[in-house]
Amino acid sequence: MKDSKRKILFVDYDNTTLQSLRRLFFNIEYNCFFARNVKDAFKILKEYDIELIITEITMPAMDGCEFLKKIKGKYPKVIRVALSGYSNKEKLSNLLDQSLIKSYLFKPWDNIELINSIKRTFQLQDILTNEKLVNYIDNMESLPTVPAVYQKINEMLIKNESVEKITREVEKDQALASKILKVANSAFYEAQTGSIKQAIMIIGLNNVKNIVISNALFHMKDVDKAEILWEHAIITNKITGYIYKKIMLKKIPSEYSSAGLLHDVGRVIIINYLNIENKKIDILLNNNPVDLEIRMGYEKKLIGFDHAKIGGYLLKRWEIPLPLVEVALFHHDPLNEIATNKEIVGITYLANIIAWKILKPDIKNDVIDEKVFESLEIPKDKFYKKIDEFIENESVNYN
What we know:
Layout (H helix, E strand, L loop, with lengths): L6 E5 L3 H10 L6 E5 L2 H10 L4 E4 L8 H11 L4 E7 L3 H9 L5 E5 L3 H18 L2 H8 L9 H11 L4 H9 L2 H11 L11 H8 L1 H13 L5 H25 L11 H4 L2 H9 L1 H10 L8 H10 L4 H11 L4 H9 L11 H18 L10 H7 L3 H15 L5
Parallel strand pairs: 1-2, 1-3, 3-4, 4-5
Helix pairs in contact: 7-8, 7-11, 8-10, 9-10, 9-11, 12-19, 12-21, 14-15, 14-17, 15-16, 17-18, 18-19, 19-20
């Protein structure tokens, strides 16, 4: 009889670590394998249908990055998670940016959190590999593919190429270059520049990468809808960074820096590729562009899936880093227990609502769930005070 248990492979050169993991996962619902070196890890991957690999990235025989690249190349369906020391945080963030890992955990780990994290990882995988969802989206006509320029820029970032070289690559695509300048010169960045290089330096390389993705998607027949959704994406992204800086009092992690730009890609897909269904939804909502809970209900009824699931699946398919996948999937449901990156999901949820208040102040908007403030440990009064300051200083440009 075929073993129905989900299979996990733990890789670590430290035998003490592996022994601790053996004890923790003894007699738990998963079928676990353990390897002390890269050679043994590949033997297990070859012999067994491993779904999840959790690995140390500091390996004596092979660099962790190279190891993960090989796994991704030979076993692309295996979920890759890193378990390493806090001193490797920057390296872990880089691996996440490169989509070589889906997430990471630090040593020493909390046993309950490690078990729950694995559970959430599998639950998320089940959502994003739902057979009906996969078949529906894959059967859409002319579904966009990852732009070649995105892959090229991503490779250049991995190789630590200079801003000058990346600028030259961007300048080959005038539509993309124009979009980057528009973002940099928007009311929220106020760069006032005609230089692509300067614009890239102002908005950051991670944002450039995801503007490439956005540029591939935000080509709509309905120019007005394209403009409002693109403006909304820019404002949401800016507010996300503002909440981190002014309310959370910390710098936004680099892997989160484009969350606002991509949070609504599912909405864009519906407008571009499900035109009939979208027109029906617009009629039912009296052409209200603001994301009300009722919109999601109409999407589920008329399409079978809401735009959050569509967006999450597409970003996963394009191998966008997991935090951005979760933002697309849960930005209307930030307290969902499956979400691993709850902080950025919750902050983007808040930014999304505030962005619509700025763009469409006269239209009924979502009411913020106050439990999100508790989850993020943000005092409600402080939040609204800072947001009022933001709106007062910035929103005049949109009225």
